[in-house]
Design a protein that fits this description.
- It is a single chain.
- The protein is an alpha/beta fold and 269 residues long.
- Helices cover 32% and strands 24% of the residues.
- It has 10 helices and 13 strands.
- The strands form 5 sheets. Strands 1-3-5 form a 3-stranded parallel beta sheet, with helices on both faces. Strands 6-10-7 form a 3-stranded antiparallel beta sheet.
- A hairpin with a 5-residue loop joins strand 11 and strand 12.
- It is elongated and about 65 Å long.
Length: 269
């Protein structure tokens, strides 16, 4: 919190709700036209939900586009008026069908299935079958992914995203140090000062591909994060894990090269 307010005061940073940033990142608004229903939720819908948590952000965005929103949660502690004020048309809770909280926790899976059946009967069975085919493909959400090492075209792990839409060459904002890890792959590390821009490539990647193919191909020293690009945009990226940065094992600062290919060319690799 302290760092954030210092950045606002001294660097002109902008304070944004986390859910607002995530919805922009996954281009949520682009997927709303033609949608019949949006389902969101969390463990407990309560007063905290109203303070910018994910369900409230999703509901506000969907409601603004005229798409009905329902929630699924463990319990609901908000009044109908509070729910409607956030854009939620109806709230479904496990406690509606099983008042015992302990059983809700122990048998969450079967109870969620029953709740889903009820939701489908209420909202989907009455949709206009003349305009919606039962053969419709499930919605695929894609996000921009920035790669700066062996994930780039021609790299050792590019196969995990090969064939996906290439959005072009890109560069990070000058807010990162750039490391080689055992000279095998690079890693970005965010810094408050002394950062550089790093060259890379930008791809449009479905979230399930990131989950099933991209992340499993990445080294254990890296983790998924969000990078700021030179043009002010955001994209998913893999960053150096804090524990790996603190250990410093096999790390070499190659920030002066500004890119993995430039560095590898200097090594003759």
């Amino acid at each position: 919190g302290g760092v954030g307010y210092a950045a606002i005061a001294l660097l002109g940073a902008e304070l944004r709700p986390g859910i607002e940033l995530l919805l922009d990142l996954v281009r949520f608004a682009d997927h709303l036209p033609g949608a019949d229903l949006v389902v969101t939720g969390e463990g407990s819908l309560d007063e905290q939900t109203l303070n910018g948590k994910a369900p409230a952000g999703v509901a506000a965005a969907a409601a603004a586009a005229g798409v009905p929103v329902v929630t699924v949660s463990g319990r609901v502690a908000l009044s109908r008026e509070q729910l409607h004020a956030t854009g939620v048309r109806q709230a479904y809770a496990l406690t509606d069908i099983e008042p015992d909280i302990r059983r809700c926790i122990a048998e969450a899976g079967p109870l969620l299935q029953e709740l889903a059946r009820q939701l489908a009967r209420d909202w989907l069975d009455t949709r206009d079958e003349t305009t919606h085919s039962t053969e419709d493909e499930p919605m695929t959400i894609t996000v921009p992914l920035f790669v700066n090492g062996e994930g780039m075209s021609g790299g050792k792990v590019h196969h995990s995203i090969e064939g996906l839409p290439f959005l072009g060459a890109a560069r990070t904002a000058p807010k990162y140090r750039f490391y080689a890890v055992r000279d095998e792959f690079p890693a970005l590390w965010p810094v408050d000062e002394g950062g550089v821009g790093v060259e890379g490539e930008l791809y449009e990647v479905p979230l399930d591909v990131i989950r099933d193919r991209f992340i499993p191909a990445e080294p254990p020293e890296l983790e998924l994060g969000v990078v700021e690009l030179e043009d002010g945009g955001s994209a998913l990226v893999v960053l150096l894990r804090e524990v790996a940065h603190e250990a410093r094992k096999g790390l070499k600062d190659i920030s002066e090269h500004g890119g993995w290919r430039v560095y590898r060319a200097g090594l003759g690799g």
